[in-house]
Structures are given as C-alpha cells and as structure tokens.
Design a protein that fits this description.
Chain B: This is DUF742 domain-containing protein. Chain B: InterPro entries: DUF742 (IPR007995). Chain B: It comes from Paractinoplanes tereljensis. The complex is a heterodimer of chains A (190) and B (124). Chain A has 190 residues and is of the alpha/beta class. Chain A contains 5 helices and 8 strands; from the N terminus they run E-H-E-E-E-E-H-E-H-E-H-E-H. Chain A has one domain: P-loop containing nucleotide triphosphate hydrolases (Rossmann fold). The radius of gyration of chain A is 17 Å and the shape is globular. The relative contact order of chain A is 0.18. Chain B is mostly helical and 124 residues long. Chain B has a single domain, classed as Arc Repressor Mutant, subunit A (Orthogonal Bundle), CATH 1.10.10. Chain B contains 5 helices and 2 strands, in the order H-E-H-H-H-E-H. Chain B has a two-stranded antiparallel sheet. In chain B, helix 2 packs across helix 4 and helix 3 crosses helix 4. Chain B starts with 22 loop residues before the first helix and ends with a helix. Classes of the chains: A alpha/beta (190), B mainly alpha (124). The structure holds guanosine-5'-diphosphate (GDP) and magnesium ion (MG).
Chain lengths: 190, 124
C-alpha cells in the first residue's frame, strides 16, 4: 500500500479522549494500554481560572496548569492512536474543545458511587455530537448497580453503549476501546 | 479543510536576523495562541533535515531535532517536559518560519480506517 520514496509517509494520528471525574480511573486507564509511561502533560490556563482548586499554580499570577494524561499506541507502522485523559469538571471544559477537535470519540469513565461527576463530560459530548461510550469502573466497595439503573441515573439514551471496565486491566481497557470504535462505526453507518 | 497554510506551503523565509539570541528567552512572549489550521494536539509535525542547521536555540532546536521523525505537540510536550501551550506557540512559530511542517491527515476518517483501528486494537 505504501509507495515509499526516501520520505516515508507520516502515520495517521487518531485520538480518543478519556474523561470523567477525579479519581475515576483515567490515568490508570491510559497507563494500562499505553506503550509509553502515561505522561502527564500540562495544559496552561492563562485565562481567568476562578474556582480551579485542584491544579497547581505556577507563576503566582493567573497561570495554573491542568494535568492531562497522555498515552500513545502504535497500531501499525502507519497508524498511531493517542489517548488523552482529561478532568471532567465543567471548569475545564474550555480545554475540551482543543482536545476533542478531530477525535475519533470519547470514553466517559464513571464510578457508580459518584455518577454525577460524569455529567459535565456527558453533556459536552452530547452537545457536540461526539461519539462516546460510558465505561463503568467497578471499585471495591462500590455498590453493584445494574446497567439499566446506571443508564437512568446518567440520563443517556439507550443508543449510548455502557460497558463495564476495570481500568487496571489491559484486556478490559482494550475491550472498552474496541467498543468505542464499534460505536463510531454504528453511528457512521446508521 | 480550508486553504490556510498546510503542508507544502512555504512561508517567507526568516532571513532577517532580528535578535536571534534574545528571542529564545522570550519563549512565548506572553502569547497563548498561534493559529495554524489543522494543528491539533495529535497532528504529526516534521522538520526538514535542513532545519537542523538553522540558527535555532533551546526548545526550538530540540523540536526541530525531534521532528526529524514525525511527532505531535503532545509528544513534544512530553519530551521537552514543557506545557502544551508553550510547545504549541514555539512549534507554531517554527511552522510560520518554514522550519516545521504539518503533515497532511485525512479530513475525515474513512469507515475502512475505523475498522482498521478496531481490528488493530483488538489484536493488541
Ligand atoms: N477497583 C478499581 N480501582 C481502580 C480502577 N481504576 C482506577 N482505580 C484506582 O483508583 C484510584 C484513582 O485512579 P486514577 O487513575 O488516578 O484516577 P483519575 O483521577 O481519573 O486519573 C487509583 O488508586 C487506582 O488504582 C478500577 O477500574 N477498579
Ligand atoms: Mg489522573
């Protein structure tokens, strides 16, 4: 397929966004599958970042940073998959436009003990018509809900896939990524 | 997408040597945005080998070195341990100056490409 001259064609770069509340397993998820250590890059908030309390101030002024998880998977020699984990709080939503632009789709991770933490992410992806699925992380000590209850609690349509996942387990993370690609295909073909 | 500068576009060369030493210290000069159409966090950037002999310093030089192989802003940010916003501005300048170029990416992912992604992920 590749007509190689001395300059090799660049890989096609595709990205998937992982969102959800704090402590929901985003960093773990990215780290479980990334071929590089899940790197945390910093996005700068230079605009008024009122109410940002879980970020570290750098220059004392209005500049604060937000940690983004960044993972990379080489799918083949011409295809790169990037994963970006981003905090799901409303106040970070200005970051999302940038992250989500051109994304294949998104995965919203939820902890059944705090489903409401995922609302801003879900609202955002719905409003912007980004294909997304919900990954339910089973935390020890978390109550078991059935998927119907979770769907009702989230208020997402029946069309949005909700899958169980263990962000610590590579195979499980892989399954979630595959489920997202299936959802993207379904939307495209439907 | 649009007819904005992309791969292949050759902006005017920066032949004027205005403060080549001071400039790197300014880094981003307080700017937070350099707009290049199609420059996303994952967009592959590549520098021409000739850019290695350009009078660039610090981050700009490192970016040109790293981008002898295609790399994204995210890769560069991680490699340089610099915030994305900073890398975006420096890379944006390098693009404007013609040292770095944005590699073309498909405007829309085809069905067959999405299927390929799915199959490759499944096979990981
Ligand atoms: N039981 C369980 N624990 C998890 C899972 N994912 C993450 N954790 C743990 O939850 C904590 C927070 O995870 P982290 O990835 O840092 O969350 P983040 O804030 O969304 O990045 C860590 O101690 C993880 O080990 C999961 O799927 N199941
Ligand atoms: Mg985290």
């Amino acid at each position: 397929m590749s007509a190689r001259s001395d300059v090799v064609a660049p890989p096609i770069a595709v990205k998937i966004v992982i969102s959800g509340g704090f402590g929901v397993g985003k960093t773990t998820f990215v780290g479980a599958i990334s071929e590089i250590e899940p790197l945390v890059t910093e996005a700068e908030l230079t605009e008024a970042s009122i109410g940002v309390d879980d970020t570290s101030a750098v220059s004392g002024k209005t500049t604060t940073t937000v940690a983004l998880d960044f993972g990379r998977i080489t799918l083949d020699d011409a295809l790169l998959l990037y994963l970006f984990g981003t905090p799901g709080q409303d106040r970070f939503s200005f970051l999302w436009d940038d992250l989500v632009d051109g994304a294949l789709g998104a995965i919203v991770l939820i902890d059944t003990r705090r489903v409401e933490d995922s609302f801003p992410s879900i609202d955002y992806f719905e409003e912007n018509r980004i294909p997304f699925i919900v990954g339910v992380n089973r935390f020890d000590g978390g109550m078991r809900f059935d998927l119907r209850e979770i769907r009702d609690a989230l208020g997402v349509s029946d069309a949005v896939p909700i899958v169980e996942c263990d962000a610590r387990d590579r195979v499980s993370v892989k399954d979630v990524l595959v489920a997202l690609t299936e959802e993207v295909l379904t939307r495209r073909l439907g | 997408m649009t007819d904005e500068p992309r791969a292949g576009h050759r902006p005017p060369p920066s032949t004027y040597d205005e403060d080549p030493v001071v400039r790197p210290f300014m880094l981003t000069g307080g700017r937070t945005q350099t707009v290049h159409d199609g420059l996303r966090i994952e967009t592959q950037l590549r520098a021409a080998p000739a850019a290695l002999s350009a009078p660039l310093r610090f981050e700009a030089r490192r970016i040109v070195e790293l981008c002898q192989q295609p790399r994204s802003l995210a890769d560069l940010s991680a490699a340089l341990r610099a915030p994305l916003g900073v890398v975006r501005v420096i890379a944006g300048d390098l693009i404007t100056e013609g040292y770095l170029r944005i590699e073309q990416q498909p405007a829309e992912l085809s069905i067959s490409l999405i299927e390929r992604i799915r199959d490759r992920v499944r096979a990981l």
